[in-house]
Amino acid sequence: MVLEDLARPIIGAPMGGGPSTPELVAAVSGAGGLGFLAAGYKRAEDLAAEIAATRELTDRFGVNLFVPGPPAHPERFSGYVEGLKESASEAGEPRWSDDEWEAKLELLRREPVAVVSFTFGCPSAEVVENVRATGAEAWLTVTTPEEARQAAAAGADALVAQGHEAGAHQGTFDDEGAGEAFGLLALLQLVRVESDLPLVATGGIATGAGLAAVLAAGARAAQIGTAFLLCPEAGTSEAYRRAIREGGPTELTRAFTGRRARGIANRFLREHRDAPSAYPEIHYATAPIRAAARERGDSEELNLWAGQAHALAREEPAADVVARLDAEARQALEAARRADS
Known about the structure:
By secondary structure, the chain is of the alpha/beta class. The chain has one domain: Aldolase class I (TIM Barrel, Alpha-Beta Barrel). It is about 40% helix and about 15% strand. The protein has helices at about 1-5, 20-30, 45-55, 75-85, 100-110, 125-135, 145-155, 185-195, 210-215, 240-245, 265-270, 280-295, 320-340, and strands at about 10, 35-40, 60-65, 115-120, 135-140, 160, 170, 200, 220-225, 250-255, 260-265. An eight-stranded parallel β-barrel has the order 1-2-3-4-5-6-8-9, surrounded by eight helices. A three-stranded antiparallel β-sheet has the order 7-11-10, with no helix packed on it. It is globular, with a radius of gyration of 19 Å. The chain starts with a helix and ends with a helix. The mean pLDDT is about 95.
């Protein structure tokens, strides 16, 4: 089991759109954790190149895949997209895509990695078994106890329990019909009752005390993303870095992609709070807007994905983040043990 072999119980969260570089992945793995590449939004051939580049730096890492959902009916998003086109000349055309699902699964059959994790849905038992047949472990992201039951039934090796505090996309299986959003500690307790599978906790963890809390609640490790955004190895754009440094409140929004995601509130998010559930159609409609904003350094029209504890992110090498959080967690757990004795 990969989690049992970690020197430090820290997973580098897969962060799509640029932050998760081979260098960041390798730095986290080299420091005793496990780094992840984000396959979302990439062509299979580009993912293959990133896997090859990462293998030159480390022999242990994971890859995260988006589970494709059904196309949204145009009536759901057409009005929203028309509004985008009226306010932004760069707006693109909405379309559905499975994110090259089969091609990426085939790539990972040819080029196995330590772990393949899944987000946005529950893959079939056949997909999970095919991943495991390569020697990789299959980790499924869950946000509710019911999703945990489904993931366990599909044959998951571990569950990534994501609380609503998490930055970026919420991994819920059904974005349109999303029910109660669970905080991480509540979710860990509830999922622990449903399944004895190993748990990886994610959402709002940015300090050793936070890491210690989820370990005490039954997680084997914490998956951490936002705390790595300011690391020199991360591919975070300068406008994005500036927004993290400046801080501000976060919100859950569908404005940028049509799927609920947490980011720092900016002008685009505030002006499009009525965005419907339609992923990836809205993602493709807003992608050119975001690309243009990134090019000109405008953080007001970027998706500034960040967890609720983003103010605690530090500008330091990724290996130092891993070592610091691990040391702080050990101190916190020891302090709790002494207080209890």
